[in-house]
Amino acid sequence: MSKNLRQIPITCSGHTRPVVDLRFSDITPYSYFIISACKDGLPMLREGDTGDWVGTFVGHKGAVWGATINKEATRAATGAADFTAKLWDAKSGVEIHSFSHRHIVKSVDFSSDTNHLVTGCNDKNLRLFDLENYATDPKVFSGHNSNIKKCILAEGSKKIISISDDKTLRVWDTVSNNQITQLNFDDIPTSIEQSRDGKMLILSHGKSVELYDLEKLEKVKFFSIPSVISAVSISPDKSLFVCGSENFTLYKYSIETGAEIESFKGHFGPVHCIQFSPDGEVYASGSEDGTLRLWQNTIGKTYGLWKLIDSEETNNINAVS
């Protein structure tokens, strides 16, 4: 009797409200980790391959909209509706510092060396903080005409890339503090992510996913998706991307051919965030339904907790046979 290969996600419960952001660390000597931001105000850290809970960062007094973890999984940062961004010791869960803002902080991102933190705020400004000197005033980048949805640091900390409800993507030079590039869209951009090698940028807006050369910010690929896309992530080897939609569906596409590889539903609400693990074996999604779910990139492969799932299914098959 052959096995019916289907997605069997690991559902990570614990949050009590919508999960709106997530981020994987790189692979560390202790595996890799994932942080999730939730409107319940309690961002959580988990083991990335199993979803096992590691700890909760306690200190925000409002919904947490953005979360990130550095490559080494030693530092975490969060942005929240209490008008603060917080820096955390990811090993102990202790708050290291709190950065005050004038409005809700929607997005946070570390530089590759963890020496800087960028924040995107509902006051329409981006701020770049020096994490080696907390007393230093942040550099402020103004120009967006509406709320900032997402911001990332690229080329170390030389560039900030941001998307906003004003239907633009903007690139900022952190040395001169000047805006150097602007892309305009017919729809509000919903998600941006740079590839793990820092060479490509993937972006979603409306029912479209676009791939850009990050250095030149030139579009190299365009993909039309059946539903409005809320989040997108590119695989570490840049061969695939996954995206989540407002109609509860996850999609996977080949970047080379543009073909849809698979699509399926698993969440009971719109998907708000998605990202590939650093080894490409797993991708995680967070949803309005309050759960974080882990999905296999290669369905049926023995990996992490899927070893137990494989074993249980095999026993059931043998019993039926």
From TrEMBL:
Key words of the record: Kinase, mRNA processing, mRNA splicing, Receptor, Repeat, Transferase, WD repeat
CDD domains tied to this protein: WD40
A Pfam family reported for this protein in Swiss-Prot or TrEMBL: WD40
Listed Gene3D superfamilies: YVTN repeat-like/Quinoprotein amine dehydrogenase
Positions of transmembrane segments: none
Gene Ontology molecular function: kinase activity; RNA binding
Matching SMART domains: WD40 (SM00320)
Annotated family: Belongs to the WD repeat STRAP family.
Stated name of the protein: Serine-threonine kinase receptor-associated protein
Organism listed in the record: Brachionus plicatilis
